[in-house]
Amino acid sequence: MILSPAVRSLKPSATIAAAAKAKALKNQGVKVYDFTLGEPDFNTPEHVQEAARAAMAAGHTHYTASGGIPELKQAICNAYERDHKLKYEPSQVVVSNGAKHSIHNVVTTLCGPGDEVIVPAPYWVSYEALVELAGATPVVVKTTEASGFRLSAEDFEKAITPRTKLLLLNSPCNPTGATYSVAALEALAKVAVKHDLFVCSDEIYEKLLYTDEPFRSFATLLGGIADRTIIISGVSKAYAMTGWRIGWTLAPKELTAGMDNLQSQETSNPCSISQYAAIAALSGPQDCVETMRQEFARRRTYTLGRIRALPGIDLPDPGGAFYVFFNVSPYFGKPLGTKGTVVSNATDFCTALLEDAHVALVTGDAFGAPGFVRLSFATGMSVLEAGCDRLASFLHA
Ligand SMILES: Cc1ncc(COP(=O)(O)O)c(C=O)c1O
User: Which of 73-82, 215-224, 235-244, 318-327 has the lowest mean pLDDT?
Assistant: First the structure.
């Protein structure tokens, strides 16, 4: 065995694997209704593309400071002051190769063997793997559909041991779309303070919100909570920039210095051209974000209506992001599709749905939620309509 133990036990990203399966079918010439990937289907806004072209023309095509160029760090601080009234200094920012890389930096810099990280389930696919890669132990705390898939302060506190170091919180959540009220966040923050824990608050979907209550960053909550909060975000989702690979952390200075050091050895800097594009995204006109959000809102309403019309299926309102996450276990043990396939878990359900109806969803098993599936509505309306029709006929609904 040539692989290291860490890589040997690493599970491949299930969302990427599901998308690859759908793509393999497409390559055979099959029309696939693909709802697997978590990325906006819009093009990056034109003024952002233009900033990248200008950066190249100006010769910004070399290595940069490992944690990002000062202008981008300042633009990030300005954006948080504008949007959240949060005062951060550039020395508290590390810009990375996407928010996934930022989470890796946080977990690896803060945690190691013997440390426990609390991960509420359903969770984003990479959380568990990134914690394990750091040699730490993920402690998965299940949340229920009845609670809107939100971690309660009681369940959070029950999961804490003397080894607990960090809570990985994600609101709006991938895969459930769950958002937390300010009161619910404050209750979690109090527990974190009481037990001297860090909270990594993944806020990458903060701009894609469909609730009346405005977004509140975790770092704005109780006095002092910012000292133990690491905000994760990036340009991928809000500005349709998944391919540019720019994410960031906002964190206490000591931790920021540690993450910068780690990143300097692992990857050097994030892409220089993308950094200039990110400045344009954050500092330029923001109406493109609202235009995309409104289109997502329209698709969300449509998709929720279609999924809730399926007999035996209901789900809490996803307050943000671009996913619906629902329980398909009422259909286990029943003949499905044109071949009458019988399944007993969500992974087999997704395989049968893809093979029979050419509709691609992601199994909830990947998110620590057996029996559930995730449908991404970050795709055109006509694909959504046809995909929902095909899902309904697969279920004989
Ligand atoms: C909750 C969550 N955090 C982080 C990321 C990573 O985003 P990026 O593309 O910036 O690495 C994703 C992407 O799907 C996500 O859903």
Answer: 215-224
- For residues 267 and 329, state if they share a domain: no
> Can you tell me which atom of ligand 1 is nearest the CA of 38?
14
- Residue 321 Cβ inside 6 Å of ligand 1? The answer reads no
Q: Residue 121 is part of which domain span?
A: 47-283
pTM of the model: 0.96
User: Which of 391, 393, 361 is CA-nearest to residue 377?
Assistant: 361
Please, are residues 229 and 198 in contact by the beta-carbon 8 Å criterion? yes
Alpha-carbon dihedral 378, 380, 383, 385, rounded to 10 degrees: 90
Residue nearest to atom 7 of ligand 1 (CA): 99
Same domain, yes or no, for 242 and 344?
no
Residue 336: which CATH number? 3.90.1150.10
For the stretch 90-104, pLDDT in tens is: 999 999 999 999 999
Give, to the nearest 10 degrees, the angle between helix 46-57 and helix 272-283.
140
Distance 99 CA to ligand 1 centre (A): 5
Q: 102 and 250 share a domain?
A: yes
**HSE-up of residue 85 (Cα within 13 Å, Cβ side):** 4
Domain count, the chain: 2
Pocket perturbation via mutation, ligand 1, pick of 102, 103, 149, 174 by most ligand atoms within 8 A of CB: 174
Is any atom of ligand 1 closer than 6 Å to the C-beta of 170? yes
pLDDT surpasses 80 at 64: yes
312 shares its domain with 250:
no
The domain boundary, picked from 257, 283, 309, lies at: 283
Task: Say if residue 359 is in the same domain as residue 279.
Answer: no
Question: Is there a single domain that holds both residue 108 and residue 236?
Answer: yes
Which residue from 124, 128, 246 has its CB within 8 A of the most atoms of ligand 1, so it is best to mutate? 124
Distances in Å between the alpha carbon of 359 and those of 129, 130, 268? 27, 29, 40
| Last residue within a domain, chosen from 229, 260, 283 | 283
What is the distance in A from the centroid of ligand 1 to the CA of 376?
14
Grade residue 72 by pLDDT with cuts at 50, 70 and 90. Answer: very high
